[in-house]
Amino acid sequence: MATLEAERPWFRHYPAHVPRSLKFTTAPLQSILARAAQEHPAHTATIFFGARLSYARLDELAWRFANALRGLGLGKGDRLGLFLPNCPQYIICYYGALRAGCTVVPFNPRYKAAEIERQLTDSEAKALVSLDILFEEVGRALEKVKLKHVIVTHMLDYLPPLLRPFARLKGIKRPRYANTLELEGLLREASPSPFDVAISPEEDVAVLLYTGGTTGTPKGAMLTHHNLLYNAAQANAWGNVKPASDATLAVLPFFHSYGMTVCMNSPIMTANTMILLPRFEPKEVLKAINKYRPALFPGVPAMYIALLNHPEIRKYDLRSVRLCLSGAAPLPVEVAKRWSEATGGMIVEGYGLTETSPVTHANPTDDLSKVKFGSIGLPLPDTDAKIVDPEDSSRELGPREVGELAIRGPQVMKGYWKRPEESEQALRQGWLLTGDLAYMDEDGYFYIVDRKKDMINVGGLKALPREIEEVLYQHPAVKMAAVVGSRDERLGEVPKAYVVLKEGFEGKVTKEEIISFCRERLAGYKVPRDVEFRRELPLTLVGKVLRRVLREEELEGKGPSA
Questions:
Q1: Element housing 516 (H / E)
Q2: What does the mean pLDDT of the chain come to?
């Protein structure tokens, strides 16, 4: 035991309720919906603007969609695209596709025609399900890529009957499109009878999830049934989730690995209620927490920042939320402290990647004294992590030495779709090289320092954007901040800060003041040479700052200023 804890010091700090290994028999991912419906048929599976679906009804609709797909000629290994926001149809189609043996290909609903075309082509999808109000971009993409079937669904179909007239007044109608199938018609006509498809959980790909959009051309991570099932179980074990009682606020988008696992698969595994919101609007989130009393609110730093700065936050009762998990982007220490002070809820930072289904690390959830702010926490059960030399991944580094984070575990992807060379570069002897610079302390807590690609080389000295951003967030006027490298004739590149000010501070804070604030807290080469104030920063739909966009604008010498 002593040897095991010497090799994996994080075990000493595990929450009391978390086992070191889950040791469960793997199965196809879709099995969790069948079990939830069998054990808790009447329990509410989803709440969508007040409309509720029970687990029995969700199970029936997923089987109807599976039979509809089989009737359309789709089956084992065929790719089905989902171009949908968070709504009941997403879950119905996701699990129905898995039951038919298909591989699900999620699409970002913000994608434009060229991006849709590229992902349809790369994934070799045979069919796509789209929301009607998003279909314009899909239609443009279909001018260049042909699909076997296009299925359209309508938001009105799953709104409460009393809200449908008001939705129509707002312009949400039921347009018809040529050469498309109606989801509701397919579900009505299809059989709800189960059927068997042979699935090898550890080999068959359940979801082809595209990643890399913030740093380069997206590539498809092949996530198996085993990857996703295991990660849902790991997340539930870590959060000590209570079956059929802990509702989850599902505002993180399901097309993103974080939302897919923590807001959809994990709640279904425990037959818990998902409160679905199709997009993040601070007031709607506050209202939903106040009304539906979720226990779990997985989010990202940008969400917590927006809620903390909402002028009406004190009007709503947020005390039902016992656990907030922050992921997808670094959680600034000051934001975490402010959230805990403002709400009383426990907020812990975690970590993951699309390639790991995604969760690999999290801070303890049983005791605030075990949480280390600024750390991504401890590896989850059955997950190993280490720090290796960025130039020689065979050389492991010691405590507090900065290197590249490497991860091994049941949630690590099978590889990249149609990219064997990139798969070999990322997966080395069972370990995934994450591309993130990090270190581990003596207690086994891990700390992300920055992305390898985001390091700023200031005359040979390495400045890390996240370290500078942490200082910027300490300034009382700063709402959001991002740092990238800016070209410099003498030093090669220097840090430049992009800052969004809190309401009431616009025009009252100068860039010289921000630079001076940083100079008092950072080594000279890390201090931003310039500060650009903006009304907003470019974000992914899940709330991650797109540093790539800022770098491109900086190289081109343009960009919107506040």
A1: helix 511-519
A2: 90
**Which tens digits make up the pLDDT trace of 479-519?**
999 999 998 877 778 999 999 999 899 889 999 999 999 99
| Number of neighbours of residue 115 by Cβ within 10 angstroms | 17
Angle in degrees, 0-180, between the axes of helices 88-99 and 55-71, rounded to the nearest 10: 60
Cα-Cα-Cα-Cα dihedral sign, residues 417, 266, 241, 283: positive
- Please tell me the distance from the alpha carbon of residue 528 to that of residue 369, in angstroms, as a whole number: 34
pLDDT score at 548: 81
Predicted TM-score (pTM) of the model is: 0.83
Strand partners, 530: 496
Residues 233 and 270: their CA atoms lie apart, in Å, by 9
User: 301-308 and 282-292 are packed helices; what angle lies between their axes, rounded to 10 degrees?
Assistant: 90
* DSSP SS3 for 36: helix
Pairwise CA distance, residues 510 & 516, whole Å: 10
pLDDT > 70 in the chain, percent: 92
Contact between residue 356 and residue 413 where contact means Cβ atoms under 8 Å apart:
yes
CB 324 within 8 A of CB 350: no
Q: Which two tokens stand for residue 187?
A: 């579900």
Contact 324, 339 (CB under 8 A): yes
DSSP assignment string, 156-210: GGGS-TTTHHHHHHTT------TT-EEHHHHHHHS----------TTTSEEEEEE
Q: 187 and 60 in contact (C-beta within 8 Å)?
A: no
Ramachandran class of 112: left when φ > 0, alpha when ψ lies in -120 to 50, beta otherwise: beta
Query: What CA–CA distance (Å, rounded) separates 472 from 481?
Result: 7
Q: What is the 3-state secondary structure (H, E, C) of 320-353?
A: CCCEEEECCCCCCHHHHHHHHHHHCCEEEEEEEC
